[in-house]
Amino acid sequence: MSLVSSLKHSIFVRIYAGLLIVCLCVALFAQLLMDTINKERVQSYRENMATGAFYLVSEGVSRQEDATQREYWLTDASSLFGSTFRIIPIDEVDFSASELRRFDNGETVVRYIGQDNYADIYHRLPDADKVLTVRISQVTEQQVRAMAVFLLDDLSYYTTLSAKRERLAVLEERFSYPLELKASNTLNLDNDQMMRLRRDEVVILLQDSSSQSQSAISVVVPSEINDMAILMGPVPLFNWFPLNLIVSMILISMFLISLGVYALIFPLERKLQLIQVGVNEVSQGNLDIQVQVIGQDEIARLSATFNAMTEHIKRLIESQRELTRAVSHELRTPVARIRFAVDMLADTDDEDSRYMQRDFIDEDIEALNGLIDEILTYAKLEEGSPKLDLEPVNLKELVEQVVRETKALGKSIEVIGQPPNAKVTAIADRRYLHRVIQNLAGNALRYAETTIVISAGVKKGNAFVSVEDDGQGIAEEDREKVFVPFSRLDDSRTRASGGYGLGLSIVSRIAFWFSGSMKVDESPELGGARFVMTWPVKPLTQTIAADQLTQEKSERSLSDE
Fold first, then answer.
1. In whole angstroms, how far apart are CA 397 and each of 418, 430, 442, 487?
2. Phi, psi of 429 (to 5 degrees)
3. What are phi and psi of 79, to 5 degrees?
4. CA 466 to CA 489: how far, in whole Å?
5. Are the CB atoms for 306 and 313 separated by under 8 Å?
6. Which of 54, 210, 248, 348 is the most exposed place for a label (fewest CB within 10 A)?
7. Dist CA 472 CA 450 (whole Å)
8. How far is the C-alpha of 119 from the C-alpha of 146, rounded, in Å?
C-alpha cells in the first residue's frame, strides 16, 4: 500500500506522519527563530561593546584644538588600534532611521558584513554633521590594549582621585560593563601580573567558567595614582545559547507541538463524539440515527459499520414484527380448517367421511410444516451470516437436477432446461444454490401457462441462474415488491396460487450472502416473468453488513401499498 493510500485510509498513520511533520516544522521554526534572535543579540552585543570605546575616541578627537592636531591624534590612535580611523560627513553614508536614533542616543552603529567577515563601525562626533568610522575584521588583544590607553588618555585630563572617580562614573554609563578605580592589592593578581602592572603594562584576565554564560574577561589598567589601577569589567563573553533562550525555545516548541497535536487529534475527537452521539441515540431506542463521518479512515469505516448495524437491527426488528403478524395470519386458516375437520370427525359416523376429514387434516398439517420450514429458513438467512460451504458447482448438473425434480411434480407445464457446457463451474454453496433454482422454478410453475425455462452460465466473471415463464408476468411497478417478505400482488399471482410470500425473499437473501444480486424483468422469449440471480464466480471477502438494497426496496414497497 502506497504512502498516500495509507494516509488516506489509516487515521493512525496519518497521526504519526502528522506528528513527525509537526515536530520537523517546529524544529525548523525553532532553529530559524533562534538564529534570528541570536543575530539580534550579537548585533546588540557588538554595538554595546563598541559604544564605550568609540565614545572615548570621539572625546579624544573633540579635545584637539585644530584639524592638524586632530589628524595627528587620529593617526596615532589608528596605529595603536591596528585599524584606520576616519572622519566622514554623516550624509556620505545612508543611515536608516533606527541607526540615526542610535546616534541621537549617543550610541554606536555597527554594520557587520557576514560574507566578507568584517564590520564597519560608526560613531557620531559632537559635531552632528560628521561621524567617526573604522573597519575591523576581528577583535584582537591589540584593540583591547588600545582601548585601555584611550581610557588613560581620557582620565589624564582629571588630576585628582575624586575627579577620576566621577569621570569613571560618567563613562560607565557609556560602557556595558563596570569601570572601577581600585587598589592593586585587592585585584587578586599573581606576582607576574603585579610586575607587569608596575611596568605600566595592561593586564588582561580571563575568568573561565564551566558555564559559558559566566565566562568573562577583565582588563586591569595601570593608573597614574600609585598602588591604584583601573578595573574594566568583567566583560561577559557572548553566549550563543544562554539558558533563558534555551528554556524559551523549549517552551515555545512544546506549545507549538501541543497546538499541532491538538489540530491532529481534534478531528478524531470530533468523529468519535459523533459516533458517541449515535450510540446514545441507539441506546434510547432511536434506530433512525445516521452518523455522518466524512473520510475513508478507520473512524469513517467504523461509522459506516455503525450505520449498517443500526439499519440491520432496525430491519430485523421490523422483519420480526412483520413475521409475527404474517405467521399469525397464515396459521389462522389451516388451524381453523383443522378445528373444523376435528369437529366434523366428532359429528359423523360415516367411515368415508372420517377418512376424508383425516386427509384434509393431513393436508393442513403438511401446509403448516411447509410454512414453518419457510419461516425457519428465512429467519436463519435474516439473522446473520449463514455458514456457506463454498465449492465448485457444476451448473449443468444442477440445472438438469432441478429440471428432473420439477417435472416429477406432474404438472401439465413443459419444463425446458438450457444448461451450459459440462465444464462450466462456479464457486457457491450447492445446497443454497439448489434452493434458489428450486424456489424460482416452483414459483414459475405456479404462474406459467404452458412453459418454463431454466438456464445457467457464466458471463464476464459472474455466474447466473435464470428461470422464465410464459405467464402474465409482473408489472414493472410491482417488481420490487415480490422480494418483500409475505408480500402478495393483486393480479394473477394471488393467494389462490399457493405459497406464503417467503420463497422470493429467501432467494433474495441467498443472493446477498453470495455477494450477488437478484432481479426480475420480462422474459424476451416467453413474455412472462424472468428471475435472474448473478454472483461472482470467484469467492469474495465478505463483510457482514445489512442488506441495504433489499431494505430500501422493502421500505419503498411498503410505503407504496
1. 11, 11, 18, 32
2. -90, 110
3. -65, -40
4. 22
5. no
6. 210
7. 12
8. 18
Cα 213 → chain centroid: 43
With H, G, I as helix, E, B as strand and everything else as coil, classify residue 292: coil
Please give the Cα distance from 300 to 11 (Å, whole number): 9
Surface-to-core class of residue 447, CB atoms within 10 Å of its CB (0-12 exposed, 13-18 middle, 19+ buried): buried
Q: What is the pLDDT of residues 539-557, one digit of tens each?
A: 654 433 334 444 444 444 4
Which residues fall within 8 angstroms of residue 214, CB to CB, at 6 or more apart?
Answer: 207, 236
User: Which long-range CB contacts under 8 A does 40-47 form with residues at least 24 apart?
Assistant: 41/238, 42/238, 43/110, 43/112, 45/238, 46/110, 46/112, 46/119, 47/102, 47/107, 47/108, 47/109, 47/110
**Are the CB atoms for 379 and 399 separated by under 8 Å?**
no
Nearest to 34 by CA among 313, 337, 292, 240: 240
Residue 496's CB is within 10 A of a number of other CB atoms, namely 7
DSSP-based three-state secondary structure for 403:
helix
CA distance 147 to 60: 12
Rounded Cα distance between 265 and 332, Å, is: 60
CA–CA gap between residue 387 and residue 431 (Å, rounded): 11
| Residues of the chain below pLDDT 70 | 1-11, 128, 209-214, 296, 319, 322-323, 325-330, 333, 374, 377-386, 484-502, 539-561
In 3D space, the residue among 255, 184, 242 whose CA is nearest the CA of residue 213 turns out to be 242
